């Protein structure tokens, strides 16, 4: 099947490469020339484990190409998948890129005389596909939906850092479609290639499934963080023990032959310094603003954002409680990416933490094995702020370290390094990954989220 993917960022590139690997012929379109050139030269423009190898394979086999213009490719394809960004801007979702991509596809469809399905993969709020996208498409193509063109909404659930694994082995494939033809063509994209239940629904339901999934996962994180604060304020309760006691319920973590089969869910029932990334913050905010526009004040998901905003700052105030003023003190921030195995720093809690430390006149040394360059673009280095990719120079003479991202390099730091390199070692564990007892036994002071002593 010939498929055009419009928008070759994170989702578009993974989608294009995986569909080509499964046997489809894919053209990936992006406005950015440098992305297109890199792809055609078999270079991956983002860091994502496993993508490199497959990209080389599909380019070499001729099943994937990249281009900046979509006209020819759309006219020759059965399906166009829209995977452009849908950021949150001001106080609502920004659909500028969706509008532009839809218009361009519609214009290109004037040249096609066979049925063609336009599929929205970008995360868009309910009713976007069956109103805005439908209207733009019909206006720009001069064709009628259901007669000459089809429309589908197929949300993506991949996680950064695990994108290849998630795309290749999806838990479910959600296909919202306008008509029968659109369903059957979209099924042809997936059915024979992926082993997953296909959920057939209308366009709005598909849009809402995506938001509900992200808002629920983000809410679990904020819920865990709220419980953490209650534990901190009580004393002699460790939120880690509490949540471990909760997740062993088989309704969260079913067992097969006595073994846990879904411990991944436990990551969302853990206390820490908050969630970040390119999706949770913007999607939860978009759902809130959509709900308000529909005249419903969403109390639970509103608090999800509020708790998350406070979480990085709570860490700093606990550090201050322990060491007094931060002015002139050196603080090592371990981890800049919003989670391990990615170079993505968008909305990472490390941004709020570094800004707050600088505001309090601390000297900051940020460390990350992959995300340092991306962070430099957001908060450039200066006299008070240094970056590196390894932790040892950051620990040297530091008054405290704050663990923000649980990269294995950091989790495995031997306590001897804290003792040897730091002034009077103090570890603030923002992800609860260190062995508190082991550190304390070596005389290292320890502050953990959700732990008062
Ligand atoms: N990143 C994720 O983990 C993830 C997972 C699931 C869903 N999503 C959703 O997928 C969508 C895309 O996210 P992303 O992270 O891949 O975004 P991204 O910013 O990495 O990529 C978007 C790409 O689209 C290109 N683009 C914009 N307008 C274009 C046009 N008219 N023609 C051609 N190219 C165009 C941009 O140049 C950019 O490279 C968003 O709606 C996001 O919410 C993202
Ligand atoms: O090893 C981990 C993994 C996650 N987290 C926390 O969980 C949050 C979210 O992680 P994750 O869900 O893996 O992030 P994303 O890659 O942004 O993926 C989410 O957002 C995507 C975009 O919509 C969806 O497709 C995914 O299903 C959804 O999980 C992070 O900010 C962290 O707070 C950790 O602390 N450590």
UniProtKB/TrEMBL annotation:
Pathway(s) annotated for this protein in UniProt: Nucleotide-sugar biosynthesis; UDP-alpha-D-glucuronate biosynthesis; UDP-alpha-D-glucuronate from UDP-alpha-D-glucose: step 1/1
Keywords for the protein's UniProt record, in alphabetical order: NAD, Oxidoreductase
Entry EC no(s): 1.1.1.22
Binding-site residues for substrate, renumbered to this chain: 157-160, 210, 268-272, 276, 339
Residues where NAD(+) binds: 30, 86, 123, 160, 282, 346
Name recorded for this polypeptide: UDP-glucose 6-dehydrogenase
Keyword Ion transport listed: no
